[in-house]
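Batch manifest, entry 17 of 40.
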Amino acid sequence: MSNVLRAWGRAFLSQWHGKLLAMSLAPFLLAVGVWAVLLYFGLQPLIDAMHGLFAEHNLFSTSTSWLRSLGLGTLTAVVVPLISMLLLLPLMIMTALIFIGLIAMPVICRHVGLRHYPQLEQRHGGTLIGSVGTAVGGMLIFIGLWLLTLPLYVFPPLAVLVQAMLWGWLTCRVMVYDVLADYASAEERRAILAEHRWRLLVIGMVSGAAGALPGAIWLGGVMAVVFFPFLAAASIWLYVLVFIFTGLWFAYYCMEALARMRAKEPAVVDPTPIEL
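Output type: structure tokens
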């Protein structure tokens, strides 16, 4: 685990590099712009649809008695907006992840590769289409599992643990591909995933625990409607920072693993005789 901690320290220091801090503005502004439009046109219709669903199936009395039995009676007045926010949260994560993958990850990989691993040959085992496909496929699975685990939010510690595990799987799937897309061949990427799978999942799960904070701020907008636009923007900004730090952490770990793996490769001897 020493390599995991070393990569964390290097990622923490790089996080504050002026170039990376400035670069975080682009995905943040894009995500805020997208969500400003979506929330303006879609939030109230979503809440109205959820309210109609609760009224049609008499879910208000059921949810009220359930929450009161758990000692969460204060949430009965905001149960519909709360569920609406929970449904939108995976989409917010997906938006931040896609913008980070398209805009930030190439910059992160160049920053780490050129500054710390200039000797690594770029073997271009990944493509832009492969990156988008990996992210979208991972997010579809993530959203499905997220919806299945929504009832766990009545037990916050368990919900945070499950969220961290889901994040660990998702970030491991997406970040490893993006980090090694230019530098590793497809065979090298699969070998690193197989050899370092559990340590990569640890990195993802720790990052996932950090990713619970933006979600908590986002859901806090239900309790403070007046400040909701500002809380939504703050949660998006935190998601961007968490993803950038996660990308740096994966980049340092994966490139170090790639450099060590190539160092173990037998030297290739040129069979052509040398003319004297």
